[in-house]
């Protein structure tokens, strides 16, 4: 028998709630308003990319969604509740922020331990995660023995280890060379397509936004507000990455986003 009355209404409203809901959110640092007012719903499973010029409030918005900061005004809900750092999302920063005295595997193990994965289940889960980010067989390597790109892969594996349904990434590939960056973009796109996770990714790059996003939000100059909200209608699986990047549709979207970023920065 299916529930009826108030219980059914409650269930329906929960099912209808997006994974992330920003309701008239503003954030100020003292006298400086960095973001808002801004309202945005992000449905579960979406790969949202936030793009905008330097200082428009992208990182602030991500920190608000992570729960590192509380909005000055308005409300943020993640999974129907106030965001809790380390609980409602996994976060990847521009710098990998690994524990240098631990091995690659040790870094992932720590995240698994923190996520409450039993000790006996950790080795197989660790190997699975390292394989997913292209680091199979590297568990025993020390952090200083691997490249910057590989360190960022470890950071992504750690964030995935948390098993949260939301992944937040703040310019994670910005410090990497172009080739490594493209490879990591391709791997992240594949990982996100295979899972049902919701992702929010911050970048300056229109190219990166179009390649990764299923939706792109361009922010205006500080205080950041929505200047463009675009659904990306490119295939997310069964397509060669180079072919995708070389397609006329990709070029058109990149030009549109690039133009919107420039306009928003000048407005
Ligand atoms: N801790 C802070 N204290 C005071 N002002 C801050 C703080 N963090 C950010 N700001 C200001 O808030 C505004 C938005 O900054 P934020 O870092 O969110 O932008 P961003 O778009 O991520 O920039 P970038 O692309 O350069 O990283 C800027 O004017 C910045 O100077």
UniProtKB/TrEMBL annotation:
Keywords noted in UniProt: ATP-binding, Nucleotide-binding, Transport
Keyword Disulfide bond recorded: no
GO molecular function, one term: ATP binding
InterPro entries in UniProt: AAA+_ATPase, ABC_transporter-like_ATP-bd, ABC_transporter-like_CS, ABC_transporter_ATP-bind, P-loop_NTPase
Keyword flag Ion transport: no
Annotated SUPFAM superfamilies: P-loop containing nucleoside triphosphate hydrolases
Top-level taxon of origin: Bacteria
Domain ABC transporter: 20-246
PANTHER family attached to this UniProt entry: ALIPHATIC SULFONATES IMPORT ATP-BINDING PROTEIN SSUB, TAURINE IMPORT ATP-BINDING PROTEIN-RELATED
Name of the protein in question: ABC transporter ATP-binding protein
Source organism (scientific name): Rhodococcus spelaei
């Amino acid at each position: 028998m299916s529930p009826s009355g108030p219980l059914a209404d409650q269930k329906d409203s929960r099912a209808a709630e997006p994974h992330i809901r920003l309701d008239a959110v503003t954030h100020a640092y003292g006298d400086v308003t960095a973001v808002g007012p801004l309202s945005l719903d992000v449905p579960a499973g979406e790969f949202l990319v936030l793009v905008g010029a330097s200082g428009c409030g992208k990182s602030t918005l991500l920190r608000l969604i992570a729960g590192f900061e509380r909005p000055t005004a308005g409300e943020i809900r993640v999974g129907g509740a106030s965001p809790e750092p380390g609980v409602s999302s996994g976060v990847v920063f521009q710098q990998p922020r690994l524990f240098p005295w631990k091995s690659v595997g040790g870094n992932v193990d720590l995240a698994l331990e923190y996520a409450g994965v039993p000790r006996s289940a950790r080795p197989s889960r660790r190997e699975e995660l390292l394989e997913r980010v292209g680091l199979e067989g590297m568990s025993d390597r020390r952090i200083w023995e691997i490249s910057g790109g590989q360190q960022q892969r470890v950071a992504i594996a750690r964030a995935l280890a948390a098993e949260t349904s939301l992944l937040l990434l703040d310019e994670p590939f910005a410090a990497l060379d172009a080739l490594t960056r493209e490879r990591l973009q391709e791997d992240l796109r594949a990982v996100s397509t295979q899972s049902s996770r919701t992702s929010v990714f911050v970048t300056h790059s229109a190219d990166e936004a179009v390649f990764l996003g299923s939706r792109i939000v361009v922010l205006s100059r500080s205080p950041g507000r929505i200047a463009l909200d675009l659904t990306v209608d490119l295939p997310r699986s069964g397509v060669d990455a180079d072919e995708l990047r070389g397609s006329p549709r990709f070029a058109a979207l990149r030009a549109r986003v690039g133009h919107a970023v420039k306009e928003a920065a000048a407005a």
